[in-house]
Amino acid sequence: MVSRLSFLLVCVLVSSSFVQKPGVSSKPTSVKTLKSADELPSSLDWSNNNGVSYLTIPRNTHVPQFCEGVWAFVATTTISDRFKVLFNASFPDIILAPQVLLSCDYASNGCTSGDFLTAYQYIYTNAITDETCEVYQGKGYTDGLNCTNFFPCYTCSPDGTCAVPPTYPMYNITGYEMISGVTQMLNALQNGPISCGMQATQVFFNYTNGIIMNTSTGNVTLNHAVEIIGYGTQNGVNYWKARNFWGTYWGNGGYFMIQQGTNAYGIEQYCAYGDPNPNIIIVNSTSDIKPEPHHHHPHHKKEIEKIDSTVKKILAGSERQPEYPMKYGRVPKVFFENGERIIGKRSWETIDIQAVPAAWDWRNVNNTNFLTFTRNQHVPVYCGSCWAHGTTSSLADRINILHGGSFPVLSLSPQVIINCHAGGTCNGGNPGGVYEFAHSHGIPDDTCQQYIAKNPSHYSCSAIQVCETCTGPVGSQTCTAVSNPKLWYASQYGKVSGAANMKAEIYKNGPIGCGIEATEQLENYTGGIFSQFIPYPRINHEVAVVGWGSENGEDYWIVRNSWGTFWGERGFFRLKMNSDNLGITLDCDWGIPDLNR
Ligand SMILES: *[C@@H]1O[C@H](CO)[C@@H](O)[C@H](O)[C@H]1NC(C)=O
Ligand SMILES: *[C@@H]1O[C@H](CO)[C@@H](O)[C@H](O)[C@H]1NC(C)=O
Ligand SMILES: *[C@@H]1O[C@H](CO)[C@@H](O)[C@H](O)[C@H]1NC(C)=O
Ligand SMILES: *[C@@H]1O[C@H](CO)[C@@H](O)[C@H](O)[C@H]1NC(C)=O
Ligand SMILES: *[C@@H]1O[C@H](CO)[C@@H](O)[C@H](O)[C@H]1NC(C)=O
Ligand SMILES: *[C@@H]1O[C@H](CO)[C@@H](O)[C@H](O)[C@H]1NC(C)=O
Ligand SMILES: *[C@@H]1O[C@H](CO)[C@@H](O)[C@H](O)[C@H]1NC(C)=O
Ligand SMILES: *[C@@H]1O[C@H](CO)[C@@H](O)[C@H](O)[C@H]1NC(C)=O
Ligand SMILES: *[C@@H]1O[C@H](CO)[C@@H](O)[C@H](O)[C@H]1NC(C)=O
């Protein structure tokens, strides 16, 4: 038994997700002259720079499948964070897609192993899309997810077909450089995080807190890569602060500290960074010379057509027609099994409506963006989970607001909502179920369950369906439950309707979820203030309202959709406020996060 265990551990240790690839040459970067350590600040932390966090969402390479793709995550996350530094943490967070590298960067080896330097080279040469174009799937070209016509951007439709969107944004870097040693690392860190190789041993797997000290007496072999986000001194020991990509349940919320100045575990011998290009590239796929995208048909096409039985029950109990098509995924009425849960007064009973500002936008309040990243519910396959997206994004935004916009930015997992059948499935659902679940069970972040846009084979809120980790080798992985993951709860939840009450609730507590009748005209929206006359809107889609404003005398809502950043105004749309508004003021929902549980 003991020898078998140690054999397994050895397997983990020799497997190497990071290997250096020779022959990648740097391109000139912004760091021209090096300063000595005493000319630089004595400490720096990009998770808290004067109270502002410049870090994007935490990530996990080990879900939904085990993949030795850390080289790709380190590069995309370092550059995503550097975009956040470049844009002063303003809206939106840009989450570059490691999946593009795993499938298309042939200089590395997909989910087998790779070098972040080839990723920098790839992004410099080709540019890269974000997570809403290519969601992480835990596979690469080495194990079946090849760089097809659906790279670097696609999205899927209710009929099960997928296609390249007419336009989509791409991001690139203007230079990148390989560096090593304390002085170069300190200098590069002044402009944002950096990527570094290291040797991961059992000490690292077991890490929970404190500074990992250099215990090595000899040579090290780099087999892993991490993102260094700062440095400082604690009890006389200089350290690097870094983030790992094994979920928030690893280490200290996904982070660790390691001794500085002794090349502990090889952390100072192979690093890189790139300068983000502020000019975002908008690709027009209809004018590009491209092979015609062939339509592929996801396996679950048939499922889309049948309405889930619980949803049917809710529909039957509502005033709307049960046979109403579930094209977009939300039932016609918010439905709380046990009624609303209200403690004290509702926001609009406590706020003087006159005191609500004429314009409000949670993407920029006091120069701070409080919103979590924008998602696409329709990749890697179509899924009618809008009801799980509008609600989890609003709850996550409200957690950010309660935290004052400080570290950490998180995203709550819509996949757990689907796995646990908390309101519905990919065939449609009820936002009310999400809040009830947030109250009774709690929701973990995305690093526990990566979004796969699929119904589970068995709906169950078992530990493994709520939070898991997978170990290799690639191709014959084992996934196990993670015990006691951090869960985020709601203390109250309820409904709201009518513009005045919606404004009071948004202003006081943050974004809300709202039902609308999504139409083909809305699907085709590309910008501006949308309006469409529908005599009796039939609610079929869930979105989140994050604010309101006025342009040329026209009042509008600022609405977050879950159809990707390439849709509308960077994933958002503005909707006429008081009429011709797809019924957005009829049926909204909200929850209050409970940070004390
Ligand atoms: C995917 O790419 C690999 C490596 O280029 C190749 O061996 C494999 O045949 C491809 N698979 C498919 C399904 O195209
Ligand atoms: C990336 O940015 C550079 C500017 O450094 C630009 O010249 C280049 O064309 C861009 N690459 C792509 C693929 O657009
Ligand atoms: C790591 O944890 C395992 C399991 O708790 C333990 O057996 C092992 O001794 C630890 N290794 C080190 C290097 O701390
Ligand atoms: C740190 O590790 C290196 C090997 O990387 C070794 O040569 C050195 O002696 C160690 N230093 C300390 C202070 O432990
Ligand atoms: C580490 O080992 C490699 C190969 O075994 C050797 O080329 C390299 O010089 C060694 N590095 C140090 C710092 O000893
Ligand atoms: C994309 O290109 C096509 C063909 O040149 C053009 O008709 C269309 O207006 C362009 N779309 C955008 C959004 O620029
Ligand atoms: C914005 O700043 C004002 C004035 O300092 C403060 O009262 C308010 O709470 C801040 N709002 C948020 C959401 O941080
Ligand atoms: C960045 O944001 C901070 C905090 O809101 C503000 O004080 C600073 O002026 C901004 N800097 C730039 C360059 O916009
Ligand atoms: C939406 O766009 C598609 C594709 O361009 C077009 O065929 C369709 O007629 C448009 N629908 C509406 C309602 O504008």
Protein traits:
597 residues; Cathepsin B, Chain A; eight-stranded mixed β-sheet; globular; disordered N terminus; binds 2-acetamido-2-deoxy-beta-D-glucopyranose; Pept_asp_AS; signal
List the helices and strands and how they pair.
Blueprint lengths: L1 H13 L29 E2 L24 H17 L11 H7 L11 H11 L28 E2 L5 E2 L3 E4 L2 E7 L2 H8 L4 E5 L3 H4 L5 E2 L11 E11 L2 E7 L11 E5 L11 E6 L4 E4 L16 H5 L3 H9 L29 H4 L9 E2 L24 H17 L11 H6 L4 E2 L2 E2 L1 H10 L22 H4 L1 E4 L6 E4 L7 E8 L2 H11 L2 E5 L3 H4 L5 E2 L10 E11 L2 E7 L11 E5 L11 E7 L3
Parallel strand pairs: 7-10, 20-23
Antiparallel strand pairs: 1-8, 2-3, 4-12, 5-11, 6-8, 6-11, 8-9, 9-10, 13-21, 14-15, 16-17, 18-24, 19-21, 19-24, 21-22, 22-23
Helix pairs in contact: 2-3, 2-4
Bound molecules: 2-acetamido-2-deoxy-beta-D-glucopyranose (9 copies).
The site of one 2-acetamido-2-deoxy-beta-D-glucopyranose has 6 residues, from loops.
Q: What features would you describe in this structure?
A:
The chain has two domains: 40-153 and 161-316, Cysteine proteinases (Cathepsin B, Chain A), CATH 3.90.70; 347-594, Cathepsin B, Chain A. The radius of gyration is 24 Å and the shape is globular. The strands form six sheets. Strands 1, 5, 6, 7, 8, 9, 10 and 11 form an eight-stranded mixed sheet that branches. Strands 13, 18, 19, 20, 21, 22, 23 and 24 form an eight-stranded mixed sheet that branches. Helices cover 22% and strands 19% of the residues. Mean pLDDT is 90; it is low at 1-14, 289-307 and 315-325. The chain is of the alpha+beta class and 597 residues long. Helix 2 (70-86) packs across helix 3 and helix 2 packs across helix 4. One 2-acetamido-2-deoxy-beta-D-glucopyranose is lined by residues 126-127, 172, 174, 277, 281. One 2-acetamido-2-deoxy-beta-D-glucopyranose binds at residues 141, 146. Keywords: Disulfide bond, Signal, Zymogen. Residues 40-275, 356-592 form the Peptidase C1A papain C-terminal domain. One of its GO terms (molecular function) is cysteine-type peptidase activity. Pfam families: Peptidase_C1.
